[in-house]
Design brief:
Oligomer: heterodimer
Order of helices and strands of chain B: HEEEHEEHEHHHEHEHEEHH
Shape of chain B: globular
Largest interface: A-B, 21 and 29 residues
Distance between the termini of chain A: 60 Å
Largest sheet of chain A: none
Number of strands of chain A: 0
Number of domains of chain B: 1
CATH topology of chain A: MetI-like fold
Bound molecules: adenosine-5'-triphosphate, magnesium ion
């Protein structure tokens, strides 16, 4: 049996693929920015925040880390309308990705914060820094430096996981591959191309984050 | 010559500790400490492990909360519930730790510049000039761009001293600052401290280096079970200890 591959038939749909890449990237960037901001705050709450706040944060982290992403997405998209909150596919996807990355990275960053020796906090306090300055300038940067490789991996997992968002008709890359495959009957080629693009995106994002971390997040 | 009474009059005291009591839970660790330090005085605090030396130092800059008594540094009372008063006090009190506690993600120079920039709002050039001068003072003028992990323990501790000095403190607290060092590195750190003492810095230092305490300090405080058990000029305290506890402590060091 010989397989005849016809990539051109698939690439003919390049505007759709491009839209898919754009949505995948947009959702990922949003998840990185909002999800990381959220998780730094939540990690702080868990390590040195008030107890009344630490408990709900712990519950959120456990809930999100112990349920499938697709269930979380369906809950937001199909479940919340029952409560009167109707969200567009893109918005539901964005919220699901932010919350998912937020939960995992809260746990990752929390571990990093706990690893910063107490003596550094004490040295900073005795230099008359405010509690906020101690956290942002002394405790957080080395913590982020320590856990950055884990965070980058988690971000890649979330980017790849965004493929599931096609299930609620978010026009991300996997959704584009689905549609093209249905229209052209070139299923194999459609997914080969999607695979290659995901691979390229993952490598690109990893490189970008490895570059950006020391410069933007934890550089001196 | 000022009389002895004048020298310890309240307005001449830079550190004023009155009837200070501190407990961890049920364990009372400081059982009523009175200590009055004149500007420029060098006070060595000695005593057995667990006698409360570190706890006392940590109370002076508010790293530990005490339950009873009063503490005033450079006219500023310690007020735990007032964050800005707390920081005002901490600007007057520098502290150097046994474990150096340099910030590992910042270069040596930026370790020193951080607090003056953030707290004193010193501009970048001024902070840099000051940091360079301080590094020269501790003999590390070529280490501005080095990272802490690239330095020896003695060098790290000298950077920590420079970092504390960058805030222009009135009082410097030193808690066994040479205990984590290899013996051959102790001298370079003590040399810097001795220089500070000669320049008139007020120093409260917990130390196990008795020879150094004897040489540099104006007064030695012997702590025992949470109290100032004996206190006096080094020659008297070491030469003619009055209490059995101090005699026993000193002889335990000979072994
Ligand atoms: N964070 C803490 N929680 C509970 N107890 C403590 C704490 N820190 C110190 N203690 C207790 O307080 C007492 C005094 O401790 P401190 O560290 O002040 O002694 P020290 O004189 O500095 O001893 P060393 O020479 O070993 O450093 C000890 O009994 C110690 O167990
Ligand atoms: Mg101690």
């Amino acid at each position: 049996m010989t397989v005849q591959l016809d990539f051109l038939a698939v690439l003919h749909y390049w505007p759709m693929l491009l839209t898919g890449v754009a949505w995948t990237l947009a959702l990922t960037v949003l998840a990185i920015v909002v999800g990381l901001a959220l998780s730094v705050t939540f990690a702080w709450v868990r390590v040195e925040g008030p107890r009344w706040a630490a408990i709900p944060v712990a519950a959120y982290v456990e809930l999100l880390r112990n349920t499938p992403f697709i269930v979380q997405l369906y809950f937001i998209f199909f479940g919340l309308p029952e409560l009167g909150l109707r969200l567009s596919p893109v918005l539901a996807s964005a919220i699901a990705l932010v919350l998912n990355l937020g939960a995992y990275s809260t746990e990752i960053i929390r571990a990093g914060l706990s690893a910063t020796p107490k003596g550094q906090t004490e040295a900073a306090l005795s230099l008359a820094l405010t509690r906020y300055q101690v956290f942002t300038r002394v405790v957080l940067p080395p913590a982020m430096q320590k856990v950055w490789p884990s965070l980058v991996s988690q971000i890649i997992i979330v980017m790849l996981g965004s493929a599931v968002c096609g299930q609620i008709a978010t026009e991300e890359l996997n959704y584009a591959a689905n549609v093209i495959s249905a229209n052209t009957f070139h299923t194999f080629e459609s997914y080969i191309i999607a695979t290659v693009i995901y691979l390229a995106l993952a490598i690109l994002i990893r490189r970008l984050l490895n570059w950006a971390g020391p410069r933007l997040i934890f550089g001196g | 010559m000022p009389s002895a009474a004048e020298a310890t009059a309240p307005h001449k005291r830079i550190v004023d500790i009155n009837a200070l009591r501190k407990s961890y839970g049920d364990n009372e660790v400081l059982k009523g400490i009175d200590l009055h330090v004149r500007p420029g005085e060098v006070v060595a605090i000695i005593g057995k492990s667990g006698s409360g030396k570190s706890t006392l130092l940590r109370c002076i800059n508010g790293l530990e909360e005490f339950q009873d008594g009063g503490l005033v540094v450079d006219g500023k009372p310690l007020l735990y519930d007032n964050a800005s008063a707390m920081r005002a006090l901490r600007q007057s009190v520098g502290m150097i730790f046994q474990s150096f506690n340099l910030f590992p993600h910042l270069s040596v120079g930026r370790n020193i510049m951080l607090a003056p920039s953030l707290v004193k709002k010193r501009d970048k050039t001024a902070a840099r000039v000051q940091a360079e001068a301080l590094l020269e003072r501790v003999g590390l003028e070529d280490k501005f761009d080095a990272m802490p992990e690239q330095l020896s323990g003695g060098q790290q501790q000298r950077v920590a001293i420079a970092r504390a000095l960058a805030m222009d403190p009135k009082v410097l607290l030193c808690d066994e600052i040479t205990s984590a060092l290899d013996p051959e590195l102790v001298g370079e750190v003590l040399g810097v401290v001795e220089g500070l003492a000669k320049e008139g810095m007020t120093l409260l230092m917990v130390t196990h280096e008795m020879r150094f305490a004897r040489k540099v300090s104006d007064r030695v405080v012997f702590m025992h079970q949470g109290r100032v058990h004996e206190m006096g000029p080094p020659a008297e305290l070491f030469g003619n200890p009055q209490t059995a506890e101090l005699r026993q402590f000193l002889s335990s060091l000979q072994e």
